[in-house]
Amino acid sequence: MKFIRNSWLAALYCVLLLATAAGARALEAATGTPVLVVRGEIAVTNAPGGTAVFDRAMLEALPVSRITTTTPWDSEPHVFEGVSGVDLMQAVGASGTEAVALALNDYEAVIPLADFRRYGVILAYRKDGVPMGVREKGPLFVVYPFDADPGLNREEILGRSVWQLKSLEVRTR
Ligand SMILES: Nc1nc2c(c(=O)[nH]1)N[C@H]1C(S)=C(S)[C@@H](COP(=O)(O)O)O[C@H]1N2
Ligand SMILES: [Mo]
Q1: Does the CA dihedral 119-123-127-129 come out positive or negative?
Q2: Does the C-beta of 167 come closer than 6 Å to ligand 1?
Q3: Rounded to whole angstroms, what are the CA distances from 96 to 43, 71, 126?
């Protein structure tokens, strides 16, 4: 009897696991201009080379997260909106421990995935409701909640505040 109950539980777990995997697996191909390419240790891809390519609409279709804060580059608080690192990593089924963030100017920084969870970091595509152009640090700007945690105002974190982000490579340190 106990065995049967455990088998049932095991079966239920399997179904739940499969359902979760299926939920994370679907990613339609990008039809618009690619804005972000995610590669490396990801389970969900939609383009050659094991990559997940996102156009703007795809990014905006993910849950919208918001951080209102000043930044070392803005003395007034602004409302940054975008996709949270956690939601993005979930969407691509990431399994590594860090992401190498690459910007349009080929600036590169390593961001621990733990930062995404710990600080609620977002990849912002709007500032005060307006899409950020390349001149305003867009199309994607890695934003930490500086005002919520004054400890973030340090060189290590500033270095991870990549603007004009174009790709993320998920890897294990
Ligand atoms: N796209 C991009 N983001 C970047 C950088 C860069 O050169 N390009 N420099 C990083 C580093 S090392 C720091 S300390 C801060 C520097 O910001 P500042 O150049 O405005 O002082 O931005 C970070 N984000
Ligand atoms: Mo820096």
Answers
A1: negative
A2: no
A3: 11, 28, 27
Take atom 17 of ligand 1 and give the residue whose Cα is closest: 158
- Tokens at 45, concatenated: 């891809």
pTM score of the predicted model? 0.86
The H or E element that residue 54 is part of is: strand 52-55
pLDDT tens per residue across span 75-113: 999 999 999 999 999 999 999 999 999 999 999 999 999
| d(CA 104, ligand 1 centre) in Å | 12
Task: Check pocket membership of 161 for ligand 1, CB cut-off 6 A.
Answer: yes
The alpha carbon of 156 and the centre of ligand 2 are apart by a number of angstroms equal to 7
- 42-77: pLDDT as tens digits: 999 999 999 999 999 999 999 999 999 999 999 999
